[in-house]
Predict the 3D structure of the following.
Amino acid sequence: MLLKPEIKLERVTDITPQILNKYDINSLILDVDNTLSTHHGQILTDGLPEWLELMKENGIFLTVLSNSKEARVKPFAEKINLEYISLGLKPLPNGFLKAKKKYGLKFKNTAIVGDQIFTDILGGNLVGLRTILLTPIKLETTYGFRFKRWVERIVFKLYKIKNTEE
């Protein structure tokens, strides 16, 4: 089930140390667009600074992996004081494998956190990562994204994807 996330939550701030502990996750690879901020936005989602601090206090390693260019990702990653990999080419393995090598990650204890089934979840499942799907902060309006979100709704029904209970 390459398109099914292991965990489904509304917002990144819904991820708690307790949930991560339950799934034996100690590292998170974070998408940016519609996960930590709106698509191409630089404003942090509500509660993000406090959540990042909570994760760090609980020994959770955090890094950013985005398909966006460095000009988009670098200022955002610097704002939240995290390392990053841009042009990740998700769902292809390249960015995930680069993160694994660069940070010494064990994929069985690492989750990709993102808002898209066909990039974040598919890519994570292809390389053996744990997967956490979030509801997009704000739906995109371009035709390509609207079509992708329509197909995602079919996947949600097919796999009966619902929010995970803590």
The beta strands are 7-9, 27-30, 61-65, 84-85, 110-114, 130-134.
